[in-house]
């Protein structure tokens, strides 16, 4: 056998071994990430006695299987799901829209003081939720008595406005990066043709920012939907959102892990649905494919 033949044989045996190792690592990572989900899903379909007598990672068999926890969890979470949708959708849409407008004004147009305003937006991203809880409570109870003005529904309005304000800085930063990647000659040509700032945004900037809208909408929807801290501080009375309703399971349903897991999956379903429906647009926006 010649040297070249031995080289070919060595490559043919070496490459599959490398791939086997790669596939083994990937498989281990898949198992590592999916095992908690698989365990939680099986737990949600088990009876209480089956959960206590079987290994959590094993599926329910025969009379161990039940959909009862899903029905109980849905009955308890249903009103809260509606309240969450009522405030998450406008908070997501308006934070993305205002973020795109702010980024457009900070990128495409030129005016004095842009850098200072941009630094304020960047600083807003790094303010932790915990740092504003007391001022936020004082604002919505002392300065603007939103519940006195609108009644119990005012809690959801306050939560919506708070999330819009908190989401604008990160949306602005994302849209600014997108706008800076666009061909600036398009905007200059539009200005030379007499187009106003509003027309340029509506006819050029907004259509080209659709992929980034997908990114910001998914990010904001997930972030706001999963928030519990602001909701605990601002929401009072019967208008508790879904994370608050799920959190109440731990106080009243001690030991009923099948009910807890069913409630957790029901709470997570809207965010999973958003990723499944808009995953392609999200990938295009992250990769800059729409630019």
Question: Can I get a quick summary?
Answer:
The chain has helices spanning 3-44, 48-53, 68-107, 114-125, 133-143, 146-150, 154-180, 184-192, 197-208, 210-225, 229-234, 242-252, 257-287.
Structure description:
- The chain is an all-alpha fold.
- The protein has a single domain (70-288), classed as MetI-like (MetI-like fold, Orthogonal Bundle).
- It is 78% helix and 0% strand.
- The protein is flat, with a radius of gyration of 26 Å.
- The protein starts with a helix and ends with a helix.
Shape-level CATH architecture: Orthogonal Bundle
Q: Major sheet, described briefly? A: none
Tell me the distance between the termini.
55 Å
Instruction: Report the radius of gyration as a whole number of Å.
Output: 26 Å
Continuous helix count: 13
CATH class term: Mainly Alpha
Which class of secondary structure composition applies to the elements? mainly alpha
Mean pLDDT: 86
| CATH superfamily grouping | MetI-like
Order of helices and strands: HHHHHHHHHHHHH
Low-confidence stretches: none
- The share of residues in helices is over 70%
Return the domain count.
Answer: 1
Q: Strand tally, please? A: 0
Outline type:
flat
Q: Kindly report the CATH topology.
A: MetI-like fold
Beta-strand residue percentage:
under 5%
Membrane topology: Multi-pass membrane protein
Domain ABC transmembrane type-1: 81-278
Family: Belongs to the binding-protein-dependent transport system permease family.
Protein name: Carbohydrate ABC transporter permease
């Amino acid at each position: 056998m010649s040297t070249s033949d031995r080289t070919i044989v060595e490559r043919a045996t070496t490459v599959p071994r490398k791939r086997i190792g790669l596939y083994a690592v990937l498989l281990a990572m898949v198992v590592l990430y999916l095992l908690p989900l698989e365990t939680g899903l099986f737990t949600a379909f088990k009876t209480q006695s089956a959960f206590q007598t079987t290994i959590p990672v094993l599926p329910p068999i025969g009379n161990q299987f039940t959909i009862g926890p899903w029905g109980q969890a849905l009955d308890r979470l249903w009103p809260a799901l509606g309240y969450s949708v009522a405030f998450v959708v406008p908070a997501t849409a308006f934070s993305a829209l205002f973020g795109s407008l702010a980024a457009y004004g900070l990128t495409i147009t030129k005016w004095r003081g842009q850098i200072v305003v941009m630094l304020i937006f960047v600083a807003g991203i790094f303010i932790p939720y915990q740092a504003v809880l007391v001022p936020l409570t004082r604002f919505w109870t002392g300065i603007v008595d939103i519940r006195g003005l609108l009644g119990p529904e005012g809690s959801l309005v306050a939560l919506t406005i708070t999330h819009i304000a908190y989401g604008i800085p990160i949306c602005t930063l994302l849209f600014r990066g997108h706008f800076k990647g666009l061909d600036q000659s398009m905007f200059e040509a539009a200005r030379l043709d007499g187009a106003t700032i509003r027309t340029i945004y509506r006819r050029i900037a907004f259509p080209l920012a659709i992929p980034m809208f997908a990114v910001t909408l998914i990010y904001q929807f997930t972030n706001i939907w999963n928030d519990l801290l602001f909701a605990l501080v601002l929401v009072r009375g019967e208008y508790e959102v879904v994370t608050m309703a799920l959190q109440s399971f731990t106080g009243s349903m001690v030991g009923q892990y099948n009910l807890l897991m069913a409630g957790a999956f029901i709470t997570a379903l809207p965010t999973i649905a958003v990723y499944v429906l808009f995953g392609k647009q999200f990938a295009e926006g992250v990769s800059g494919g729409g630019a």
